[in-house]
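re the bet — no i am not wrong, look at it urself. input seq straight from the record:
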Amino acid sequence: MPDARGPVPPFPAPDILYAPPSWRCIDFISDLHLHEDLPRTTQALANYLASTPADAVLMLGDIFEAWVGDDMRTQPYEAACVHFLAQAGTRLHLGMMVGNRDFLLGEDMLTDCHAHRLAAPTVLHAFGQTLLLIHGDELCLTDTDYLRFRQQVRHPAWQSTFLSHPLQARLAQARQMREASQMKQQTQTPETWADVDESTAEQWMRAAGAATLIHGHTHHPADQPFAFEGASRHVLSDWDLDHGSPRAQILRLTATGFERIPLASS
């Protein structure tokens, strides 16, 4: 059968993040999908950020279920999130990477949250390791419909036009897109969701000089050998403490290695 993948993306010039010697603990989270229908998840995140011993929390995309522009941060729910994110950002290094749901998260939001932008990809040097950080959607090459959509909405002209519309119109469009996405997911099972293309990930990892890949997006948390001998990947968990089986994990890195920490609802 022919390869159903989309075009293989070249490895973009990454940002480089060097963990300072003072860092003893780095936490990775992603796919929180924050929205007002997740009160327990939201409160658990706020509690975690207020108490984590980490020197840095690196959020690898899909922090919000939808983000239609930084003026959205004035809405009541989002303003409450900004408050606890900013409290965390004043006491630790808070890094934010955009995902497929919140790719319009911009500099005004980062400033209000006292957060640092994490490019996709970012190469992190920490505890003698070199790690490649991405959200993950960019390498799900069998999801060709999404990749066409991604190319469209990441174009500056599309974003400029979209952001020129009133906030309420953008929120309405986001709701429609979310409903369409939920209907599509109902016809699929998690086992059929696209995964990161391993051969392309290997190219990116070798280009970055990284033997470890960390990403989210797929909602299949795992720690496994990957891509080439001696290499591995760590797939972050999504968060939902409000519906069905509770899901929320922290991936923590210290000088002794990785640890997964399940987060209980508060």
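see?? Helices lie at 39-51, 76-91, 107-112, 144-153, 156-163, 167-186, 198-208. told u. also Residues 49 and 88 are 6 Å apart (CA to CA). so pay up
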